[in-house]
Amino acid sequence: MSKVIVITGTSSGLGLATAVQFAQKGHSVYATMRNLDKKDDLLTKAAEKGVSVLTEEMDVTNIESINSCIARIIEKECRIDILVNNAGAGFAKSTEQATYEEIEWVTEVNYLSVVYTTKAVIPYMRKQRSGHIINITSVGGLVGQPFSDLYSGAKFAVEGYTEALACYLTEPFGIHFTAVEPGGISSEFMKSVTKKMGLDQGMPEDEYAPILQKYLGGMQKRAAAASAAAAATGTTTKPVHQTPDQVAEVVVQVAENPDPPIRIRTSEWAEKLCELKTVADPDGKKMREKVIGMFLS
What we know:
The chain is an alpha/beta fold. It has helices at 13-24, 40-48, 63-77, 100-128, 149-168, 170-173, 189-196, 209-233, 244-256, 268-278, 285-295; strands at 4-7, 28-33, 54-57, 82-85, 131-136, 175-181, 184-185, 241-242, 263-265. Strands 3-2-1-4-5-6-9 form a 7-stranded parallel beta sheet, with helices on both faces. It has a two-stranded parallel ribbon with strand order 7-8. Helix 4 (100-128) links the parallel strand 4 (82-85) and strand 5 (131-136). Helix 1 runs parallel beside helix 2 (40-48) and helix 5 (149-168) crosses helix 11 (285-295). The longest helix has 29 residues, at 100-128. It is globular, with a radius of gyration of 19 Å. The model has no long low-confidence stretch (mean pLDDT 91).
């Protein structure tokens, strides 16, 4: 059955891959992005796969832009079945070094934007008594990591937001919620870290430098080890950093699940990193049932 799917942040990376894969499944895909001048890569990839997507302008940090975009889609389709909150941005800088403007930005683009878009869509899903909101979070939303304090704080917020909504909107209204938790995504990760930390201008000379060197060195070792293992075995089944298409496959599988998880990691590496926090309740459903029993029974 064809569904109406809205995806944010589709000009590149995971959002682009997810839009194309949903279109390949025969769904009506509304691929949104802040700047429609950047839609060419998406449309080219869709054409290569023999599918089409519909593009809409949406700035996820602008409430008016969000509401007007959702209203246009509802006017055309009369429903929205799935919202994928993909738009976001990596950020790696210590709290001390970050400016107040950067702190506000990383919080809004990675957390508040999810709240804004979810708020815009929930009334329609509630009235139709069905829907699924999929929030792209991160292993950084479960495990705090060096120089990711502000990014992890925003992603932790999305995790808590997703859990809370799932406790009281799923059973009465049929609206499902899932947090998809990738590790690194190969096309974006190192480039984003380098730019956000100012490393494209050289290594800083301050008291954080030795910690930063250990952090970057560890990432490089893990990436090199994964590449060597892949070359030796001819496989990429255990990557540190997945491709956008690999993560998109998980998103589509979650959307097709009639009883979807509340949270899911997208790779073995991500599972291993998060296992101390997830081993007792991998998909988050036990915690939901406990909360419902304690607060809503």
